[in-house]
């Protein structure tokens, strides 16, 4: 198939109604060869064919346009209708009927919605047929208009599909770029943190220590933002949140370390803690630490600063849960529905990238668990729960927590 003919053939082949239209035309006219052809000044290409004559033209194949009457239809943009070639004053001596051996012939122009010429809906037969009646011509013109309308729909769909494909490719490249950038940023950031640690160990003078501490907090904040963006990008690219599952016999120590770091970042805030000791859980403890860190930072930022924040972690049988609660105004229902969406942040406090709770939900999902939020007039509580994959006993049901703040 010539390259220039591929697109028109594809357009017609995508229209599911075309085979039915060809069948209807054959039934209405009695013609045994019917087709939709794409016609240009120098090419005739079959885009859809109904051939009960063994005429021999197949989809994608062409004819010399100078041997066809479709060229005249294109030039005049008017139908050509012949009931019987031998009796037709115009075409009885025409070379086309002699070449192809037909007596009856009809060709109706097909236009694109913008008025551009596409081709013809045409048919022929070695036997005469009554084609010039008003009913037949009107019916053929209606079928041609229907094809024209479908071409518009298909063109719009193809443009949409191409736009979506282009957007998807652009999105994938953007996310790959972000992932590579995040990886490359970690190296200089690690050097900054190492340098700060060395300067601190060398007993920096009292005037310098606050500056070093501010730099360290900023560097760790950048590190957290990089981790969030890379995790989000990995999830969007289909990789999900990466886990390193192992049996951790002291998960509570990881959680305590997270709480200790946030106490240092928010020294003015009260954080009440209830952790089961020696929590043995098959999990990615670093990821669960990240989950707690995101939940706790969210509570500290959005909770009432005059009220304490509580953290409770429990394991009962094979069921493990972490609950983080803060006091303050209840979260509106409309906001609750958006909390775990990426890049969403409330208008009143727009800290960070808005990925923290999205990553919490992804970590929960990767562990086979879930995250839920309940907000009342007293407090707002986020509860993560999961089943220990390494536990062989029977489930004990949902882990219960005490009411109010711990």
UniProtKB/TrEMBL annotation:
Keywords: Kinase, Membrane, Phosphoprotein, Transferase, Transmembrane, Transmembrane helix. It comes from the Bacteria. The keyword Iron does not apply. Its EC number is 2.7.13.3. The keyword Transcription does not apply. GO terms for molecular function: kinase activity. Residues 180-390 form the Histidine kinase domain. Gene3D superfamilies: 1.10.287.130, 3.30.450.40, Histidine kinase-like ATPase, C-terminal domain. It catalyses: ATP + protein L-histidine = ADP + protein N-phospho-L-histidine. Pfam families: GAF, HATPase_c, HisKA. It is an enzyme of class 2 (transferase). PANTHER family: SENSOR HISTIDINE KINASE TRCS (PTHR45436:SF5), SENSOR HISTIDINE KINASE YKOH (PTHR45436). This is histidine kinase. It comes from Allohahella marinimesophila.
């Amino acid at each position: 198939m010539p390259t220039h003919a591929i697109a028109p053939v594809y357009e017609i082949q995508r229209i599911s109604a075309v085979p039915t239209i060809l069948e209807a035309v054959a039934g209405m006219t009695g013609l045994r060869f019917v087709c939709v052809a794409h016609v240009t000044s120098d090419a005739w290409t079959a885009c859809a064919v109904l051939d009960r004559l063994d005429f021999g033209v197949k989809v994608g194949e062409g004819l010399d346009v100078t041997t066809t009457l479709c060229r005249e239809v294109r030039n005049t943009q008017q139908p050509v209708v012949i009931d019987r070639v031998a009796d037709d004053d115009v075409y009885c001596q025409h070379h086309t009927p002699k070449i192809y051996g037909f007596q009856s012939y009809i060709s109706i122009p097909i236009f694109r919605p913008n008025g551009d010429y596409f081709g013809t809906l045409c048919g022929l037969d070695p036997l005469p047929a009554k084609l010039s009646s008003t009913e037949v011509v009107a019916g053929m013109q209606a079928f041609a208009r229907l094809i024209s309308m479908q071409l518009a729909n298909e063109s719009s769909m193809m443009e949409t599909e191409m736009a979506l494909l282009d957007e998807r490719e652009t999105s994938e490249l953007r996310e790959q770029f972000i992932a590579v950038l995040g990886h490359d940023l970690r190296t200089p950031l690690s050097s900054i943190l190492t340098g700060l640690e060395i300067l601190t160990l060398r007993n920096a003078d009292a005037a310098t220590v606050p500056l070093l501490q501010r730099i360290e907090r900023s560097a760790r904040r950048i590190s957290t933002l990089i981790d969030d963006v890379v995790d989000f990008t990995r999830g969007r690219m289909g990789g999900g949140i990466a886990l390193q599952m192992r049996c951790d016999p002291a998960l509570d120590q990881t959680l305590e370390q997270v709480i200790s770091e946030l106490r240092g970042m928010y020294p003015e805030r009260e954080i009440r803690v209830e952790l089961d000791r020696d929590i043995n859980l098959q999990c990615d403890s670093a990821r669960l630490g990240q989950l707690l860190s995101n939940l706790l930072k969210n509570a500290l930022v959005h909770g009432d600063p005059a009220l304490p924040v509580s953290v409770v972690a429990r394991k009962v049988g094979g069921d493990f849960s972490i609950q983080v609660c803060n006091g303050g105004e209840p979260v509106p229902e409309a906001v609750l529905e958006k909390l775990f969406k990426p890049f969403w942040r409330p208008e009143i406090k727009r800290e960070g990238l808005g990925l923290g709770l999205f990553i919490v939900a992804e970590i929960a999902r990767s562990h086979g668990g879930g995250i839920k939020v309940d907000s009342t007039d007293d407090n707002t509580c986020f509860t993560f729960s999961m089943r220990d994959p390494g536990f062989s006993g029977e489930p004990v049901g949902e882990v219960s927590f005490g009411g109010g703040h711990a």
